[in-house]
Design goal:
The protein has 49 residues and is an all-alpha fold. The protein has one domain. It is 45% helix and 0% strand. The longest helix has 7 residues.
C-alpha cells in the first residue's frame, strides 16, 4: 500500500480490509478475483454499507 500512496493523490482513501473499505459506502464496485473478496457474502456486505 505504501507504493500506491506514492503514486496516487492524497484524495485516495486507504483501508486495511475490504470490509473496512465499503463501510458506510453508498455504492461499491468490486472487480477482482482476490480470495479475500471472493469469500465475502452479500448479506455480510449489506450490513456494513
Amino acid at each position: 500500500m505504501e507504493n500506491a500512496k506514492n503514486v496516487f493523490p492524497e484524495a485516495v482513501n486507504y483501508a486495511d480490509s475490504a470490509l473496512e473499505a465499503i463501510k458506510d459506502a453508498d455504492t461499491a464496485f468490486i472487480v477482482t478475483e482476490w480470495d479475500e473478496i471472493c469469500e465475502l457474502t452479500t448479506d455480510n456486505n449489506l450490513k456494513r454499507i
